[in-house]
Amino acid sequence: MNQKELVNSVSRSFALSLLTLPKSERAAVAQTYLVARYADTLVDSGSWSSEERVSHLASWENAILLKNENLWKLKGSLGKFPEKDAAFLVEGTNILKFFNKLPGTQNQFGCEVVKTLIHGMKWDLSTFAAASKSNPTYGVKEPQAFDNYCYLIAGCVGRYWVEIFRLPQNLELLAVSYGKGLQRINILRDVKEDWMRGRVYLPKTLLDSFDLSEGEPWKKNRWNEFCKQYIQETKALLIYGAHFCDSIPKVSMRLRFASMMPLMIGFETLRKLEKARSWEEPTKISRREVKRLAMVAVLKVIFGRGITSWTRRF
Questions:
Q1: Mean pLDDT, residues 274-295 taken together
Q2: Does residue 278 register a pLDDT over 80?
Q3: What does 201-236 look like in DSSP terms, one character per residue?
Q4: Whole-number pLDDT of residue 276
Q5: What is the H or E stretch that residue 173 is in?
Q6: Cα(83)–Cα(21) distance, rounded to whole angstroms?
Q7: How far is C-alpha 251 from the geometric centre of its chain's CA atoms?
Q8: Taking 80 as the threshold, does the pLDDT of residue 12 lie above it?
Q9: pLDDT per residue as tens digits for the range 47-73
């Protein structure tokens, strides 16, 4: 498969997002995404043992950093993976070939962010190796460790965004905070799904302070109180993201649009989580809502208006 087919095979929504990016960086972002997505598939799909996943992830990282696709080889059975994921994993060598052809700094920036993401994936594998629904594992104890995890999984992408699009370096802190805010949303939204796998990403000391560390927290009396504080802290990070978006030059219309959309979807997701009466069903933003937000973003980009004022409604 070519690059476009590969991206479409794993995420049609990301494939559409790529079209909004500046053409000069589009291929680099696509290839970096594929390399990272491949690592994530190794870690989080199929039914391999933790040992198999660790081995494959280390081999994948080694092939990336040494820029040698011949160092990569699948050793486990792909019969344990969903058909779509298995078809994607077969393309590993091709993905590395495309990635290695990226010019100088584009490849360098891609290697840096993927290395950080893989570090986070390794932490996941080692921390939750023995986790189960009957014996949940609390991944982090303190909020500081939780914040660091959010950086490893998403905040580092903010740094990559600044580097790959050659934005001013003083925007890096805003972009990193933005990424961490988006990851906090994912963690809160998926708290039940992760719990069913024995994984608790929320910091234990914080849960303890709300009497939520025993049993399923979303069923406890103080869960809404906890969520209120957590969501307010997350909104503060997204506000940094809004300032980041507004700091992108107005002539970079495609980049402004691509940067605004996750922010707007993030705020709308938080709104739904605030109003949720039950956490038994997943919280999702409908396609209709995404289209509406896209129209708002397009108008703001065309008329050179910022997104920060839009966030005040939240």
A1: 87
A2: no
A3: -S-HHHHHHTT-SSS-GGGSTTHHHHHHHHHHHHHH
A4: 84
A5: helix 172-189
A6: 30
A7: 27
A8: no
A9: 888 899 999 999 999 999 999 999 999
List all residues 6 or more positions away from 70 whose beta carbon is below 8 Å from its beta carbon.
Answer: 63, 93
Report phi then psi at 76, rounded to 5. Answer: -90, 170
Per-residue pLDDT, 222: 94
Nearest-angstrom CA–CA distance, 216 and 279: 11
With beta carbons less than 8 A apart as the criterion, state whether 37 and 89 touch.
no
Query: What whole-number distance in Å separates Cα of residue 58 and Cα of residue 71?
Result: 11
- Could you tell me the end-to-end alpha-carbon distance of the chain, in angstroms, rounded to an integer? 43
Nearest to 165 by CA among 114, 118, 109, 116: 109
Looking from the CA of 97 toward its CB, the CA atoms found within 13 Å total 8
Please give the structure tokens belonging to residue 22.
């500046």
* 92 in Cβ contact with 64 (< 8 Å): no
Residue 287: exposure state from Cβ atoms within 10 A (0-12, 13-18, ≥19)? exposed
